[in-house]
Amino acid sequence: MPDRLPQWQQEMLVSHRLPAAYLEYAQKWFAPLACALAKHQKSAARPLLVGINGCQGSGKTTLCDYLTGELQHREGVRAVALSLDDFYHTRARRERLARQAHPLLLTRGVPGTHDMALLQQTLDALLTPSVEGPVAIPRFDKATDDRYPRERWDRVDEGVDLVLLEGWCLGARPQDAEALATPVNTLEREEDPDGTWRRHVNRALAREFEPLYGRIEQWVMLRAPSFDCVFRWRREQEQKLAAVTHSAATNRIMDEAQLARFIQFFQRLTQQCLDKLPDQVDYLYSLDEQRQVTDYRHAGEERR
How far apart are CA 240 and CA 235, in angstroms? Predict the structure, then answer.
């Protein structure tokens, strides 16, 4: 790794196990996005919330880390990145949901398994300039399938100008009864035959996610070629997780059979996002099967 790289870039490459060549790629595609977001924030003269959609494994976390570095070190914009994944309900809470509402709610991921009140409280603290003192940022441990204890959460010690919020289902909307009635895969057909789980997820989208969307001022999407990529991309995530996880937690790492079932939880809303969001977001990056950007669109302009 070249020593001349800024420390934040060196740390990002190590953290995400990326080659140095990634920085040239990111400079071409994503540095202009950081510049545009900085200009938008400065014209607004207040903290800005940016929503980033992309299916599992599409590179949302890597993008957010890169954008945070660019915004802070090149644009002079204080930025912090949040992941919707860090706001899952605790395992104990999901166990109660599974008993009281539907067994499928034990599995983290879909709307209805997030602590949206905690997310809104965190956003309130970050986006309200008058709030003083450190802001605690929840963190979730996917290896143990539970939230980290509060003493292991991150902290933001001073005010921010811009918050990046990434999530696989950000932008998904409630569906009508007719759309919900037809299962999209084996999981829905065999484990949710009467649609109880699907309706619970749908209600969570309406009650908890749509109010959040009203706070997001700029939208970014990493668009996968199709849902078919999700299995392979998600498997790579599990392999990376296994490589850095201590042995006591490896029982939570999914094998291929478990993963094939797991991604079915996400199929309905992922496909909806792939179909509907490209025409609605402010910045659209289209990816190939290797997660490389093939084209970019903003305000009707395309760059290839």
Answer: 9
